[in-house]
Amino acid sequence: MKFIDIGVNLTDPMFIGQYNNNGKQYHEADLKQVLERAWSIGMEKIIITSGRLSEVKESLELIKTYSEENNNNNKNRLFTTIGVHPTRCSQELINTTNGNDEIKKEYIEELLTIYNENKEKIIAIGEFGLDYDRLEFCSKEIQLKCFEYQFQLSERTELPLFLHLRGAAESGACSDFIDIIKRNRSRFTVGVVHSFTGTLDELNKLLELDDGIYIGVNGCSLKTQENLDVVSKIPINRLMIETDAPWCDIRKTHSSFKYIKTNFPTLKRDKFKLGSCVQNRNEPCNIINVLEVISGLNGGNMEEISDQIYKNTIKVFFPDLENK
């Protein structure tokens, strides 16, 4: 089986042994081992999620570092995105000095400059969208303005979209999201709504947009029985899988855990040794667990399901490889 993890936060400090933003070093950096575990289970490519300018730069530096190691065995395996996450829009993309909440046009231009200098490694616009669950970080009004504004990135690069949608059904997030997608549909080709956790009604509305919109699922999409019931309704030809590591791991308390067959050696972070995973820290190798759940829900052949998901991902993010 071949895998492509469409969303991994490899720049997160957890992969260098730091947790909770307290500066404490719990264990030595193990990103090299994390990547080696991913390659060993059939991972072919990883898309590193970038949600602001500084993360784009960090991601590109990480890609450069690990692409040069091991006689270029990692070359053409690591990629990233450009865009501003909805919870970071106020901090990153808005100029508040004059009180008018104007978008920093120069910020977008800098993202485009970086893209033009790194086209082979930047393959999607994102992570961007709406997050009504965390309005304490950015107001609804600013999120809406910044979400719509960033479609110029897709228009000017012709890259696919890596979209964020989060918010309880009653919040109106999905409705606002769909309205913006419809208004800007001519400005992009294809995209994936990643880490989907919505209702069946919301899923159907997204699928009804057109067949250029895909749904990405990870452990956060598979926590409850209701989540599983919804995910089981996603057509396999519209599905992608991801880990969103180091977040969104599948735990014993989750309804999806009964489908898990593959386990990796795991230790608590304060007892960590190289060669093991860290308890409650997700990583790309666990994408096989997401596939196991999808396969269990669909009652199908895991290899066939994996092959279709892989083809979906190639079609959207690596179209040059589609017929190879």
Automatic annotation (TrEMBL):
Q: Binding of a divalent metal cation 2: at which residues?
A: H164, H194
For this protein, the record's Gene3D superfamilies field holds:
Metal-dependent hydrolases
Q: What is the lineage of its organism?
A: Eukaryota, Amoebozoa, Evosea, Eumycetozoa, Dictyostelia
Q: Which Pfam families match?
A: TatD_DNase (PF01026)
Q: Which UniProt keywords apply?
A: Hydrolase, Metal-binding, Nuclease
MF (Gene Ontology): 3'-5'-DNA exonuclease activity; metal ion binding
> Which residues are recorded as binding a divalent metal cation 1?
E127, D244
User: Mind telling me what this protein is named?
Assistant: Uncharacterized protein
Please give the organism. Answer: Dictyostelium discoideum
**PANTHER family, per this entry?**
DEOXYRIBONUCLEASE TATDN1 (PTHR10060:SF15), TATD FAMILY DEOXYRIBONUCLEASE (PTHR10060)
> Which family does this protein fall into?
Belongs to the metallo-dependent hydrolases superfamily. TatD-type hydrolase family.
Name the SUPFAM superfamilies on file.
Metallo-dependent hydrolases
Against PROSITE patterns, the record matches this protein to: TATD_2, TATD_3
